[in-house]
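Researcher: We're teaching a course module on how sequence relates to structure. For the next exercise, students receive a sequence and then see the predicted structure as tokens, so they can try to spot secondary structure elements on their own. Here is the exercise chain.
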Amino acid sequence: MKRFPCPFLLLTALMGASALHGTTVIPPTFEELVNRAQVIFQGVVTDVRSQWVGEGAQRSIVSYVTFKVEDAMKGNPGSTYTMRMLGGTVGDQTVEVTDSPKFKVGNRDILFVENNGSQFVPLVGIMHGRFRVERERASGREVVTTNEGEPLSNVSQLGKNKQAASAGATLSIDEFKAAIHTKLTHVP
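Model: And here is the predicted structure for the students to work with:
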């Protein structure tokens, strides 16, 4: 059995920690979101569970987020779809991936999914691949916001100009889904 000096273990641990805390993501454009996604769907979270997986140095906490699919726009997610994501809480131990979306039962979202099961967060552009469906208090209409809760008003500005993407009237869920369908039918 090989023994590694303590500085090697410390360096390895620090490299692993920086990988989890140093996430930098270039926001994808709307075209990139649609083109890169293997599956696009609207769904409601029905279950979130976390568990330990792997052994030894490969042991980590992963979360399984299950959705009831309300509308499939690309791919075939089925009637339910489960995403596997790095991070979560088991007992009193938590692993958190910076900028990773946090899901709760009852959340309604439109998701752009790629490499589910093999990518640490299987969303195009990590947090950029999640759009929340919320009800406006004043009008009662369903609108789309970003993962951070910012209103979305202009899909053509996604990944280009954050302020312009959220300036103006918030897109309704139907307007956002129509933009997705339009982009899907005009794929080069």
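Model: If you want an answer key for the exercise: The chain has one domain: 26-185. The longest helix spans residues 6-21.
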